[in-house]
Amino acid sequence: AEPAYQHAGSACPHSSSPSRKGTPMSVSTRPAAPGAPAPDPDGSTRTPITKVVFASLVGTAVEWYDFFLYGSAAALVFGTLFFPESDPVTGTLLAFGTYALGFVARPLGGVVFGHFGDRVGRKKMLVVALLMMGLATFAIGLLPTYASIGLAAPILLLVCRLLQGFAVGGEWGGAVLMAAEHGDPARRGFWSSWPQAGVPLGNLLATAVLFVLAAVQSDETFEAWGWRIPFLLSAVLVLIGLWVRLQLEESSVYQEAKAEMAERTDDAHLPILEVLRRYPREVLVAMGMRMAENISYYLFTVVVLTYAKDFADIGTDLILQMLLIGAAIQFFLIPAIGALSDRVGRRPLYLVGAIGVAVWIFPFFGLASSGEPGKVLLAVVVGLFFHSLMYSPQAAFFSELFGTSVRYTGASVGYQLASIFAGALAPIIAVKLLASGDGDNTTAVGIYLVVASAITVAAVIAAKETRNTSLHHDRVLD
After folding, report:
1. Could you count the other beta carbons within 10 Å of the beta carbon of residue 478?
2. Which residues touch 130 (CB under 8 Å, ≥6 apart)?
3. From CA 43, how far away is CA 341, in angstroms rounded?
4. Cβ(93)–Cβ(431) below 8 Å
5. For every residue of 63-113, which 3-state class applies, written as one string?
6. pLDDT for 242-277, tens place per residue?
7. Helix, strand or coil, per DSSP, at residue 251
């Protein structure tokens, strides 16, 4: 038995005492399922963790390539192509409106994918999520514009965006859990941070494709048909992601939890109800922790494009170049910070990141609008560094908050529900605030992020450190 520990404010030891809240799950007394990898003494499987991490990373990168591509296109061309009867700023806001609706679909995707991921397995749901995202993104590349079919064009765009959001809602939880549940506890922060690194990698791919197209095409050509190329290219990436993910196996942690549920419960297992009943505090903590992280990321990577194009009037080429470099740096930062979280804990890093983005947002726009490459790069890299201090340990943090039989649902709901109030609204609110006053109100945007950071700091303070916890616990089995 492992020592008792504090789990999100509740004692969750791993002994067999019936008076404790956490319920242990046997690791060595039950034989492995046919064809399943045999469990090691620490609960991890003999499936190479590098294989699991690579599969999670590749699939996550493809998903976020598709998702970020839409955000960049919304900032650059969707306002003109799908909402041409509006002025430029209003058209961009409408494009960001369809962008935001993708976030609204994410919690629903988290619930649906989490439900089946907790009941039938992580792997199957990850394959379905990747296929759904790929089809929706490829379809966007084929959509006729407003000039061709009128109002039907933005409606079809909205449908594709909702499918993207639904798929991403199911992607994140499954990807990080595959890495967290397969990896050894002492390095869980490091291993589970790799799927998080798929986000900057996906952003890097999306930004790189847009940058190359901007370099070889005129603005007129890009707006006419060049913007479709990145969306159509997603089909190739999806096939690669599927090939890798189909080779994954379920972790022994999940297999044990599934067997325990089959033995110890007679009723149908409904993960979302169990999460709301037994983990409401953890859901609220996760949501609060997401606010500064999610909002700051979209300010640093998406809103800055609109700011440069519509408010600072410096064009987007330089910003795209610096975002490309920034994404590459963040890709290496995230696993490094994940490893650090295994040594110093999740909470200290998260607190520094939340406070850091609140401070950095005020010089950020001034540096980004300078037009000087060095200053623009500094703005992006420092912003993404503070963001990484939150985003890197987040995967392990959220995984450790919830019991195994509801972990996919709990982590996904906490993560995705917050995105409605954070990432979904961030571009809309930020552009509205920028347009207020004299038309370049970056101070208002800074105050907006400060408020979000205060919420995140409060949530981190309310949470308990989870670094030394085991994933072999489950309140649902009480």
Report:
1. 12
2. 59, 62, 63, 167, 171, 238, 241, 242, 245
3. 21
4. yes
5. HHHHHHHHHHHHHHHHHHHHCCCCCHHHHHHHHHHHHHHHHHHHHHHHHHH
6. 888 887 777 666 677 667 666 655 556 688 888 888
7. coil
